[in-house]
Design goal:
heterodimer, A: mainly alpha, 15 helices, 77% helix, globular, B: two-stranded antiparallel sheet, 14 helices, 2 strands, 3% strand
Chain lengths: 383, 356
Amino acid sequence: MLRFLAVRLVQIVLLLLVFQTLLFFMLEALPGDISNQFIGNPDIPPEAKQKIIERLGLDKPIGERYLNYLRNFVRGDLGVSYVFYPREVMDIIRERAPRTIVLFTTATLVSFYLGFVLGKQLAWRRGGLYEYVATIGGTILYTVFTPWFGLIMIWLFSFKLGLFPVGGFLNPQKWSGAPMSANTVFNRIMLTAVVLSALVTVLYYFTRKLSPWKREVRWAGVALLLVATIGIWAASPYGPYALDILHHLVLPVLTVTLVAFAGTMLLTRNSMLETLREDYILTARAKGLSEKVVRDKHAARNAMLPVVTSLVLGLAFVISGGIITETIFSWPGMGQTLLQASLTEDIPLAVGALTFVAVLALFAHLIVDILYFYLDPRMRSQG
Amino acid sequence: MSQAAEPFDSIRTEPLWRVRLKLAWKGFRKNWALFAENKIGIIGLVIIVMFIFMALLHPILMGWLWDPNVYDPVIGYDEILIEKQVVEEVTEPTTQVQVEIAELDYFHLNPQVGDTITILEQPAPPSSKHVLGTDPLGRDVLSQLMYSTTSEFLLGIVAALVTVIIATTIGAVAAYFGGFVDTFFMRVADLLIIMPLIPVLILMGALINLQLFHLAIIIGILSGFGGTTLIIKSQALTVKVKPFIEAARVAGGSDWHIIFTHLIPNLLPLSFLYMMFTVTTAIFLEAVLSFFGLMDVNMSWGLMINVAQSQGYLLSGTRYWWLLFPAGAAITLLCSAFYLVGRALDEVVNPRLRRR
């Protein structure tokens, strides 16, 4: 396992370097430099332009500049944003990245679970109206024009039903005079979510060997944890503010989830159909096991492996969907930052945002690989 | 003796191309039966044919029925005037009608209560002249919708062809030779699979002037070297060990001869299947980039929504439905149509998914 992790980490570092190299040469291939901004300005003499070029080191040979670029990247120095001058790109990323990570993680987990459960059912009830409705509905959700779908969601849930806010990160009216910054609250929400999922995992791990009638302990434990978390938050002064942020988070997460779950669903269906032909399913049926046990324990667990493999492809899909959704819902995360920076030609920020997306994709990929390592016994025995 | 030789003579006299055509026709009929068994594929095909019909109809309509000055999708303009009666004078507008009257005051029209005045209405709702209404700039929405269909098809087909040519060649070569070539291209594919396309294209849109043809080539290259290669290579590996490849090698066929005349033809069904998925991706990406305003195009479905957005009609709900609904539905329908056909083809190509 450790060897596997080490190899993957080295790969990630190499891939990031390759990615940065490609980005550097892509930017290098463009004509002109920053001093071209002042070409039409008669107040800026050529000497001043020359000074800008010298100060930024643009007159040095390309090899030196490339090494400089890589050195800065490794140090975490991504330059200074043009639009948010003089804020550093890294500072902006540090502020906004958690919002994207939360949106991405929640949407990925929910859509994977939903897609897997529905796909399982779909394969089990092969044929009939259910399959056509689910396949056509799933395809439409999978291929729907995401911006348009986001607008429909806003129209339906915000205008017609009035359940959720139209967009944004928080409600400024509620936050005026708040004793803490929004990011503090948001980081605590993130921390709570991480701790809670860790505790639930531990609980699950220790109760998995219990006999079925004792499993009630597990659900009681989960309920207890949830009640305790909600209690702590309600008692703290952060409570109402956290609720406001979560209220704004629901609709974007719902949108990304609905767009992304269909891919998993359709794939689980195919994978299940292939698994159902295996001999061990026939054996399980012949043993007289109930349909539910055959489906969930014998078929679905084996059908899950190819689905997890393709989750890698799904990750890119969710990230893309997340970027579009962030823009539509004005959720101030990295996706919106990337688009705004691109539209305002704030190149350092755009490059920084894209780098962040790449890092996010690479680490999500690593986590999926680790998951696969645990799910597939064949990998474990090798590794 | 002569009677026994007769059937062989008849076979020999039939030209080879005819035999091949007959075989191809037979194979097509068999596969069509498998394809048609799945209603999902037929639904997709019907939608695609509908859009092809729309694309073909547009130049005909523009040539004979529609006045180019009014119906041109990019520079057309129709002045639609409506008559409204002025009801009362308002100082503090609170409702929509009152806002409209306040706007009249703003233009110094000084309407009196009871007067009937003519004002310009854009975007105009659907009427017999403009079946889907006009956009905020007074252009016919239906004409825009039909005009864009052609470019969407061209974009999809170019992107799919580039993808398939690259992916099939690389997949076959990597599977056949193995070794360094294989490792190199597979690592490149791994890298491209992880990278989401939209952020990369957004940055490209900021850096260069993206045109439709560039986008088609970029999508073709990125997905050709990416995920499609992996799938086609794994198929090529199973074809590579079949006896006819061995036979061709024993008969003295060179490596490239074997790849191009024996390996690649056996990969083409799968390549064709992935063409469908690439078309979906390409149309979707173009729509998203146009919507963000990062594409250099005259008119496209994504741009129609972008215009509605930039003119402030994005959150108007159902009141101006013809600005958002036709374009959004067209993108979704065409994308899902190609995806559905792809899925139905999947069941033809991959026998394990079939019902029997």
